[in-house]
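Write out the 3D structure for:
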Amino acid sequence: MDIADAERAIWSAWRLRHGHVRRVHRRQLKDHAAEVIGALRLAEGRQEIDADTAEVFEDLAKMLLKIAERYAEGRTGALLDPEDLAGAPKAVNREWIRLAGLGGTVAGTAVGASLLGLPDSTTTVLVGVATLVAVGLFYGAKFLPTDLVDIAMGQSRR
């Protein structure tokens, strides 16, 4: 069982469920999201360790159900109980590294093409191809080609 979709939803839950969040509360909500994702990853990792996979799947399903219920209630600061989070390491969100790498690659390609004195039509194609290659390298299967359309249109289908 892969929990990547649940992780993505949890990282952004506090932004989506609430309007303006004060800086103090934002830090608390981000920390809680990191703890919840750490607990989910720990439960997911038990699939390869425990002999009774049925129990592991049941526990993971209960955790996901509890998260979904509390998310629906708007309780993004209490997606799981403290006993569910006990012993789980905090997850780290490294999305900013991907975004910085992608932006640096695209900007570097554009600057490099202009320094080489390439025609504008060639530069445009080169930057487009470099962008697609960089997206494939930095995001792999996490980023679908249809997501590029969503970004360009400023909307989300998820």
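The mean pLDDT is 83.
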